[in-house]
Amino acid sequence: MADETRKRILWADDEIDLLRPHILYLEGKGYSVTPVMNGEDALARVLEEPFDVVLLDEMMPGMGGLATLAAIKDRQPTLPVILVTKS
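The structure corresponding to this sequence follows.
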């Protein structure tokens, strides 16, 4: 699939290395996945480049998932965000 037609996912999780099998699965299904390890990096990436959806861990050190969600929605209110939590 051509890169410009692939759906783009931003995945923010402080344990992103443990999610590598899931990222590989999504990439195998034709998605482009950009992994970041914290809310600050997620917000910076959202402001720099377009994404179709954000997968966002609720519990991260520093800027947590809820604060990151609020910051993303302030700047891009129509961007879909899926909040992921273990709790």
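The mean pLDDT is 94.
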